[in-house]
Specification:
Helix content is about 70%, strand content about 0%. It is globular, with a radius of gyration of 12 Å. By secondary structure, the protein is mainly alpha-helical.
Length: about 100
C-alpha cells in the first residue's frame, strides 16, 4: 500500500506542477482514478512524508478538466478518474459531481 501511495503522490505532484505533457496527464489521471483512495488514506511513510487531502486531489483534476491546455483525450481520462473517485472520496463527492456536470 505504501509503495502505491508514494507513486500516486509523485505522479499527482508532477501533474499539479505541469499539465502540458499530455501522456503524463493521462497516466497520472488513470493512476489517481485507480488509487486515489490510497493516496488520501494518510501520510506516506516511505521516504519524505507526503500527505495529500481529498480537496487537493479534486483541485488537480478540476484544473485539468477546466483548463484549455489539455486535449480531449486527457480530459476524458480525467473525467473517468473523477467518476471513480466520486464513490471513494467522502468529503469531496458533491464537488466532484459539480465538476463533472
Amino acid at each position: 500500500k505504501q509503495w502505491y501511495q508514494r507513486r500516486v503522490a509523485i505522479t499527482a505532484g508532477a501533474v499539479r506542477d505541469d499539465i502540458s505533457q499530455q501522456p503524463l496527464v493521462q497516466v497520472a489521471t488513470w493512476t489517481i482514478g485507480e488509487y486515489g483512495d490510497i493516496l488520501v488514506a494518510g501520510p506516506c511513510d516511505i521516504g519524505e512524508p507526503i500527505t495529500v487531502s481529498e480537496k487537493e486531489v479534486v483541485d488537480v483534476l478540476e484544473h485539468i478538466i477546466t483548463g484549455s491546455v489539455c486535449n480531449y483525450s486527457s480530459k476524458n481520462y480525467t473525467l473517468n478518474a473523477l467518476m471513480k473517485l466520486s464513490t471513494r472520496l467522502n468529503t469531496e463527492s458533491e464537488r466532484i459531481q459539480q465538476v463533472c456536470y
